[in-house]
Amino acid sequence: MKRIETERALLVNEHTEWEVLLSKAESQVNTFGNPVRGESGNHVYRLQAFLRQTGYLKGKSTGTMTPATILALKSLQKRNGLTPTGKIDAKTREALVETLIYKQLI
Q1: Environment class of 64 (CB within 10 Å of its CB; exposed 0-12, middle 13-18, buried 19+)
Q2: CB 52 within 8 A of CB 61
Q3: What is the pLDDT of residues 5-30, one digit of tens each?
């Protein structure tokens, strides 16, 4: 009986840790917004930093949604089996969250 209680407590703890990790990743991805070409701001800078950390974007983060940033986003989409649009839709947002968790960047 003690073993079952211990295993149940471990499962609950793992589930709680997963929910916290998922929540953090979703919060971070939500800060990227949905920038379009030429748009500038901290949200674009954060997106570029993420794309650099994951190897999709080379060079510096400028804070402006450049053609290179769009190309990097398209590469991420393609690698995740999505239509490469260069825009952050719901499925791309999920791929960004999964990439954050997989790369343990949060």
Answers
A1: middle
A2: yes
A3: 555 554 556 667 888 888 999 999 99
Q: Is the pLDDT of residue 96 over 60?
A: yes
Tokens of 65: 């949604």
Domains of the chain in sequence order: 2-103 (1.10.101.10)
Instruction: Return the number of other C-beta atoms located less than 10 Å from residue 98's C-beta.
Output: 14
Of 80, 96, 79, 78, the C-alpha closest to 88 is 96
Q: For residues 23 and 27, what is the distance between their CA atoms, to the nearest angstrom?
A: 6
- The pTM of the full predicted model, rounded to 2 decimals, is 0.81
Angle between helices 67-79 and 90-103 (to 10 degrees): 80
